[in-house]
């Protein structure tokens, strides 16, 4: 038998070589492509492990703080912790620290927004006319925020410039009585106009230059900063120099105020900053807080609230804080100057009359300027830390914004629900408040505001003072792709999501406006120690007195990036924490930013509707991606295997069909069926063995050339793979040959139609021809369908990692890193399928050569015959491509758990490409039509 097999292979060298090449190509392709799927998985897991190491692995929150969006879509909005206030006790914190396997447990207690004042000096020197004896410069202010989209005018600031002498009040550093001594040696009552300069009038009489804000008759907390009127008075000396409006101290009452060459007026912007308490030691271990200090000293664990007594029965509580050197502020003041000449002094003029006196007075535009809050804040930092220089603010009123609420559109876009503004939350007349409300407190809000209950402060002044400055950008950095959800110090920014919004924002992202009730939530920019909380909260009724901690960020020991082992370890520790404390526990390991589209309704101060792209966080992205890649690798492996088997099965079937007459003769000579089957399998096995050995030498260099890891161990698998594939592919043809009756060799290889039907078109005849060989047609369509399904699957996954799987930046990076290897595998399967279709068309041309010769003899041209072959290839390719696209979509839906419209578009493109490739491969069998020996075929018939 062996000798007979060798003789058959040698006697038909051309057919044997063709079959050998088919087995070799299929086997080599199989080995290399399975190596590609392995390379793909290794690339994915490596990318996931590199980009999912973040500051903490577990987040512990109070019970019931998960939002509906977290439960429904696994999404957490940026700086979510900024809206969580207390709920975890120090005892529960101790329980978390005691759990075995916890490396760092860093608590954070969000307290709320404290307001501070940012000074913005305005140089109005050029607005002053040195020729005038008395003049008034009106500074018309306009507040700006949100890239200038929100803007509102404010009450003016007046600058009174006179050449006549001014007397300045002399006051103590901590307390002053109702009667205050002035620099002219006299004592005046402070009622009415307060601590302001007095001008000498004709006859030697002096009168105060009243501050217009007094005329409101309200407490400071009843006013917005845009409602404040102010007057500053300066004396203009000969030579164009000025004596500033300065209140002198009792320490140096006789020290003359030096004149200045520039007349500078300071306007102020009230800015809220989020205050939080941390454990400085734990924060240092978690994110390197102490290493990020750029001025002053780090916050100490022993820092506590300092309580001091002052004269008059007042007490002062000072909270030590670490303040930010990079505030996220998007605010500005635009100032316009107008000069009014005066023929008499405004000293003693009642506040309500000044504006009336200016009506109809000659006015001269005198320029203007614009100052932004960020540069002004940085200028204050340059002055150094101290109660009279930089970085201090009031704590009489601390407001706490809640979470934003959303409505979901059918396209999954989120729309923020507006919340009515409530300015009363900033205090009432019983509170000792020295700063007005932020002007944006009257704007449209998107978060409900409440007040931290610290107790009445009529006899208790509370403030914070910076002991140091920290730079958030110097905190320990982690991968942008694996940034932890609920990140404590995440910069709050949202870019425009459409052309209209991007144009409105000037191509820049939207940043916090300075409104605590605004949409974008700022991270904590003022940090104090947990030890300071008892001194701050002791007199109040806030629930945070007993449960001050808002969240605990936990880093697990012996975890370095995402892996199956790390994920299991983190899961076990998270379960222990939840069981021990009864708190909500979220696993943040393996999470990634996930861009979300958010519609922000228009504000009350001019900002239009905006559509924004905001980087939310998707929980558990890494596990979803690795599971999807494992499924994809398994599916691609199976598809490559099946398409190779179909390709070989078609080739072996064609070889057996060529020998129908020979095998029939052997049967007539007495060969049993099993021997005929063994002959066919023996020939196929021999070719498979030789092809496997050749594939061993080809797989390694080919894989190296393509950048795919194929080692010699994997290459040696080509031998058994080739042998098994050859035997599987030859089994069905061998059985068919063994069971065939000898008379079958006399029947035509192409069966007649089951039902005669007259066709009028070339396309109709092509359909009939395909129906006459249903097995062959199904084989070719199946091979192409598998290739198209594989390419559809790869295209769908490459898209879905950005959209359907988790919609995350990590998913996008994974898709980019593995797309080459996966696409190579899928394209190769499509080409093998197209080759199988071409082989089907080729066999059809050869088997029906006599029919085609008859058609040519009856007047059909070569073009007509070529169109017939083309239609057959088109219909066969269309059947396989559509079937494969459907299978690919089904596999993608199973793989990623969703089927968005874009994935359907991917499938349609792949199907069209499959049909196009099939039509191109049909050009080869169509070229055989010109070589048909028409006369010889008709004579033999």
List its salient traits.
single chain; 941 residues; alpha+beta; 11-stranded mixed sheet; 7-stranded mixed sheet; 23 helices; 40% helix; elongated
General description of the model:
The chain is an alpha+beta fold and 941 residues long. Among the domains are: 2-49 and 623-940, no CATH class; 116-274 and 327-382, no CATH class. 40% of the residues lie in helices and 21% in strands. The strands form six sheets. Strands 1, 3, 16, 17, 18, 19, 22, 27, 29, 30 and 31 form an eleven-stranded mixed sheet that branches. Strands 4, 5, 6, 13, 14, 20 and 21 form a seven-stranded mixed sheet that branches. Helix 2 packs antiparallel against helix 11 (621-658), helix 2 crosses helix 13 (673-706) and helix 2 packs across helix 15 (718-739). It is elongated, with a radius of gyration of 42 Å.
Number of strands: 33
Major sheet characteristics: 11 strands, mixed
- Give the overall silhouette: elongated
**Rg over alpha carbons:** 42 Å
Structural class: alpha+beta
Helical amount among residues, as a percent range?
A: 40-55%
- Average pLDDT level: 76
Report low-confidence residues grouped into runs of 5 or more. Answer: 478-486, 800-819
- Number of continuous helical runs: 23
Measured between the Cα atoms of the first and last residue, the distance is: 36 Å
Q: What fraction of residues sit in β-strands?
A: 15-25%
